[in-house]
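Reopening this ticket.

The earlier resolution said the output was attached, but the attachment link was broken on my side. Pasting everything inline this time so it's all in one place.
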Amino acid sequence: MAEQNRRQFLALALGAGGLGALGALGWNDRNAFIEGAPDRGLAPDADPARRTTNMHENPRLKSTSDQLPRKVIVGTSRQAFRPPYPGLEKRLDDLGALLDRMAAASRTQYGRGLDLAVLPEMAVTGGLGGWEADAFGRSLPFEGPIQSFFERKARDLGAYLVLPMNRMDSQEERRVSNVAMLLDRKGKVAGVYNKIHLAARQDRDALEDGVTPGKNVPVFECDFGKLGIQLCFDVMFDEGWRELASAGAEIVAWPTFRPGTIHGMARSLAHRYYIVSSTWDSTAHIFEPTGKIVAQAKPNEPVLVQELDLSYAIITSGGGRPGENGDGFVEKFGERVGFRFYPEEAWGLFWSNDPKMSIGAMCRSIKAVELESELARVRALYRNAGLCLADS
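Inline output:
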C-alpha cells in the first residue's frame, strides 16, 4: 500500500509541476537518496555543527517575490592571465581597463553604472612567478599598491568589486591564501573569502603548491542584497553552496580558472540564487535561479554585463493555470512585468518593473501560483500519504 501511495503521489507531482517540480524538491541533487553517502566539503577542523548530516537536505533561498523590485547590474569577464607576468603596474592597469569596459557596457545597455563587478580567479597575481614557482612565489600582499589602486577604482565606478588573488598573508611564515577580496562602493574592504577546496596538480601533493585552505563560507551584506563567493574547484563540492543558500545568499560570484556550465546550472537551480562566473577560458556565464543561462560573453568579447532582479517568482505552466507562459501577466501589466519563460521546462522566471508593486502582488492579482507554493502543497499531500520528507 505504501508503494502504491508513493506512485500515486509521484504521478500527482508530475501532473502538477512536471519533472522540474521533482527536481526543485531536491531530487536532482547528486547526493539525494544515497544511504550512507559521505560528508564532504569542509576542512577537517571545521565546526562539526556546520556539516550536513541529512543528505536529503537541499536548502534553497526563500521566495523573494513579495519584496519590491531590486535591480542589480552585474559585470563579469573572460580573460586569461598566463605567464609571463607583465609586472604589477601593468597588471593593475589592464584590470582597471577591464573594469572600465564593464562600466561602459553597463551605461550603454542600461543607462547607469555597475553594482557589482567580478574578475576571474587569481586575476591580480595570475602568471606571477611562472608555473613552476610555489604558492609563495606566486603571491603578493593585498595591502599597499593593490589595495590603493582598487580602492580608487571602486570609488570611481561606484560599484562593489570581487578581486581574486594569491594573497601573501605572512612573509616570515611563507603563508599564502587563494582569496577573493570584496570591496564596497567606497573602496573599503567589505569581506574576504578564502578558498576552501584547493586544487592539487597531478604531479604534486601540495594543495595549489602550498596555499593554506580557508575554513568559512561567509555571506556578505551588500546594499543591493546578500552576496556569496566560491572559487573555481569549490564548485565540485556541495557544502559551501548549501551553506550560502542556508545563509540567504541571493547572488554567488564564482571566479574560476576553467569554465563550466553543468555545475553552475545545477547549483543555481537547486538553491534558487543567481551565479556569476568569471573565467580565464572559453566564456563567462550568468545563471538564474531556474538553472538557465541568462547570458554569456560573446566570442572575442572579454566582458559581460547583465541586469538581474533579486525579487522574482518562478511560475510553472500546465493545466491552464493563470499566468502561464506569461500571457496573463502581459495582458494585465504590459511592460510593468518582465519574464523569461522556457516552454521546454514548463516554467519561467518573472519580475516586476513597477517600483511600487512586487511580482508577488502581481501573481496574486491574476491568481498565478508560484512554484514554491505549489511544492508546499504537494509536500503536504505527501505527508498525508505517509511519505517521509527530509524538509517536512
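Reporter confirms the inline version is readable. The chain is about 30% helix and 20% strand. Confidence is low (pLDDT under 50) at residues 1-57.
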